[in-house]
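in:
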């Protein structure tokens, strides 16, 4: 039952991430972006199933993004690394930091390469978008889920 729960949670997180990213496509892709779906990057604080869930969701979302294989591969790997690091955070307020830093760097490089924009600008815009998504949307989500975690994310 535990493996089934893990798979279902990962699949649901992947689906929600992908749908939110594509649904808010004008803000999800490009040199200046705020992915609403990145609010879900706080979920590793509740379940390790969020790690593969966010990774697979990002792969699916990036397939629709139009930035090609470099974004599908490296953008998704950045999300995987950030999700794992978020899972390892010891304090709740620190959980959103890895997606901000990792995506700011990796996606900043990707966008610099794809759009030939200054590296500092692309890193800054991505990090700012991540800050809005992860702390502006994700942190309140995390605080709201905190009292329901035993019901929603049972082990």
């Amino acid at each position: 039952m535990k493996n089934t729960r893990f798979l279902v949670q990962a699949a649901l997180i992947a689906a929600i991430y992908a749908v939110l990213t594509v649904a808010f496509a004008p803000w999800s892709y490009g040199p200046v972006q705020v992915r609403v779906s990145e609010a879900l990057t706080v979920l590793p604080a509740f379940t390790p199933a969020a790690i593969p869930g966010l990774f697979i969701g990002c792969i699916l979302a990036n397939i629709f993004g139009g930035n090609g294989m470099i974004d599908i591969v490296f953008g998704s790997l950045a999300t995987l690394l950030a999700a794992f690091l978020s899972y390892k955070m010891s304090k709740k307020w620190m959980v959103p930091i890895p997606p901000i830093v990792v995506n700011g760097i990796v996606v900043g490089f990707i966008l610099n390469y794809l759009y030939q924009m200054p590296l500092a600008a692309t890193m800054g815009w991505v990090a700012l978008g991540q800050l809005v998504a992860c702390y502006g949307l994700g942190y309140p989500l995390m605080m709201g889920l905190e009292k329901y975690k035993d019901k929603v994310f049972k082990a």
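note: DSSP finds seven helices and no strands in the chain.
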